[in-house]
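User: quick one, fold this
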Amino acid sequence: MAVTEDLKEQEEANPSPEEKKQKPQLWKWSVIFLCLYGFMAQLKPGESFITPLLLSLEKNFTREEVTNEITPVLSYSYMTVLVPVFLLTDYLRYKPVLILQSLSHISIWLLLLLGTSLLEMQFMEFFYGITMAARVAYSSYIFSLVTPSLYQRVASYSRTSVLLGVFTSSVLGQLCVSVGEVSYGTLSKISLGFVIFGFALTLFLPWPKRSLFFNRKLQGPEEDSSAELDQMNRNCPQPTAVKPVSAWRNSVFFQMLKELLNVVRLPQLRLWSFWWIFNSAGYYLMVYYVHILWNEVYPAIENKHVYNGGVDAASTLLGAMASFAAGYVTIRWSLWSELVIGIVTSLQAGLLLLMSTTSNIWVCYVAYALFRSSYQFLVPIAIFQIASSLTKELCALVFGVNTFLATILKTVITIIIADKRGLALAVHPQFLVYFGYFTLLAVIYFGAAANVIIKHFRNEKKPVTPNQNGDTELCSTVMVVNDAEKLTNGQV
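Assistant:
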């Protein structure tokens, strides 16, 4: 049996010439189908109107129940399932986790349609947390279908399909509510139909033969020779005897954890990881509670005057444009990163203050769209700054750790200010707290920016001092190169 399995693996790793000719067409159709799924999975026209539904006469929950008892469960659920889902995504090779995500989507809309109690709505938020954690399966799945040379292109395809799906879903929901005067209950039924169709699509997704960490032995010889994790294994001393402790210390995962220590030593990676953890935590807290704020600022009597879907569509489009524009910003990021982040964060603080104090719902809408687009502007810059010095596998681990730490921070803030067991603040005081949070972050960023800029201009004024051999001192450059070498295992 073992010999048969080995031969089978060799055949899969070394395809025949005819199979090689079929592969280009195969991956193209696989990517197209996955992008179609990414688009369809976002078609939930009722998603922008979940909070109005809970506060409407159809469900009749109070604003305090939604703010302090139902919505906080989303943060707790997300934190609880994030790490298991992250590991299972790679171990089970993506598809089962996408199926779990689709089943969770179905559970959400069934509970919204049939549930009437507070506990059932809390379970709805629990399943919502699972769907958010499972997004990593879609974003990483597509990389298992293509070679590394195509990563950037297919990543743009998958991201575009998701954004287009969110935009279409929001517009469709707004048209149903404002033009068709569809009830929130009917909108939930339409959303349920779409997510059931999305579930059917997951059953036909191709099952990848490899993944990033746990399933690598089925790779072709060309990919295998250039894989960073395999390079790690070759660089690591192999134990002479099979001992659990020795095997763990020489495992790929342990080596990657050691590599993470080098991330802290690189200023740009440290800065953007800090931004990812602290700013994204505040961003998602705002997104979770902003619909409750809108309902309090403008408690519309008629559903057709609730414009959540239109605002979500506009902010998604504006965010996509901001992300696209970020790719063309060419400045010296090692010098100006802190200042740029400080300016954007102070702008976000001002927008939060505006949202928490205004009584005009249209001002709230505009401030929300600007807040989201300013965050989306920095996301691709952060991804590039973090990923540019890391291997593919280490990059995935860094983003996973950053996201988990952001989730812990978000959960702690939720327990303190939103949960009924904490301060149980109403939504307006919560936004004042978020304003203070972003103001503090802006002060930290401006302080760091001043420190970096002052050091830079002081060093420029210093005359270049030759060493004993008449060569220019290159200490700092050597240190940077050495750090890069450590992070890339010699593959600079």
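User: anything notable?
Assistant: The CA atoms of residues 45 and 172 lie 6 Å apart.
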